[in-house]
Amino acid sequence: MADFDLLVKGGTLPDGTEGDIGIRGDRIIAIGALAGAQAGEVIDATGDLVAPPFVDPHFHLDATLSYGTPRINASGTLLEGISLWGELRQTATVDEMVERALTYCDWAVSMGLLAIRSHVDTTPDHLNTVTAMLEVQRIVKPYLDLQLVAFPQDGLYRSPTGRANLLRALDMGVNVVGGIPHFERTMDEGRASVRDLCEIAAERGLPVDLHCDESDDPLSRHIETLAYETQRLGLQGRVAGSHLTSMHSMDTYYVSKLLPLIAEAQVSAIPNPLINITLQGRHDSYPKRRGLTRVREMQAQGITVGWGQDCVRDPWYSLGTGDMLDVAFMGLHVAQMTSPAEMQRCFDMVTVENARIMGLADYGLVKGAVASLVVLDAGNATEAVRLRPDRLAVVSKGRVVSRKTRNDARLALDGRPGSVRRRH
Ligand SMILES: [Zn+2]
């Protein structure tokens, strides 16, 4: 009998060490120098980066791949995107949403993205969005961990059935509580919604992930209430604030008080650099604000910060490929995370730190963990961020689910090498 069902040999791990990975069933059972071991299947990763799978903690799977339906977002703003989606969700069928989402999940798998937290709009009374995404969750379960967040896109209170529908979605099996306090009618209602949502989560034993302060208004301070309610209700470690873009524009003295409160409550942060660099600052003349939250400052306080993708080809964002390295690449630039340690951290943010935010059990390249990994055509983690290279192999729960042939460019130049790989 072979020692392993699958052996990934010769790879370089994200921390720079080299190691073979032996897999049996859906588990990593050995890691280190495994020369001479017998395996049913071998992936030769010599000289390539072998990483745990990419994780996206912020996405909208119900809206993905709908770009241009019913129209293109002419102003490029968050608010026009919300209104376009408001039209589309009335007419989109369950089948159509399932099909779009499954197509996106195929893209994700091919890019080594094997865990996604998706918000699901709970505004429409028909809740077809929820029906569709629960079906997608069931279908992809063998190869992709999909968490669903009940998201009252039009407001918990601003939409007449907002609160009732959020509770219905949770009853149907959606198991993270979402919200959008900056979109409620007033600051007071926004604050009340944060309190209400945290109480719902506490009662039901669920995590919380709010779209929080996705605004250029420096006075949008719902993150303060979110940290307070997390502390008050004992929800430490299971609450996330997505976006937090108003923090970009806040008074720095106020932020110096705010960040320790977020750290104390163990609220994590999920900035979404691709979407926020395009959506924010649209009302500015010059200089235009970047609208990305204060990533390095939060990390310096010990706050867990991930990178989310948010959108791919939908009413808010026209581009996107399902590549979390695009997200890390943009985040690195906008947050100016250019030191070697910070570039490495950007890779960790789209893998281990995002996994921590989602609370993924048995994640990582360690003995006993779930055998999910990705082999990249890069020499190390920082090079992966720079190249955003091909995923040569993707393994999910012990099974090879995607393969890609190495494809170097072939040069035809006298006196120059015959091929180019751009590693350095
Ligand atoms: Zn979002």
From TrEMBL:
Signal peptide limits: none
Protein's UniProt keywords contain Cell membrane: no
EC id: 3.5.4.1
Domain Amidohydrolase: 41-401
Keywords of this entry: Hydrolase, Metal-binding
Gene Ontology terms: biological process: cytosine catabolic process
Membrane listed as a keyword: no
Short name of any one Pfam family annotated for the protein: Amidohydro_3
Domain of life: Bacteria
A Gene Ontology molecular function term of the record: metal ion binding
Full protein name: Cytosine deaminase
Species in which this protein is naturally found: Puniceibacterium antarcticum
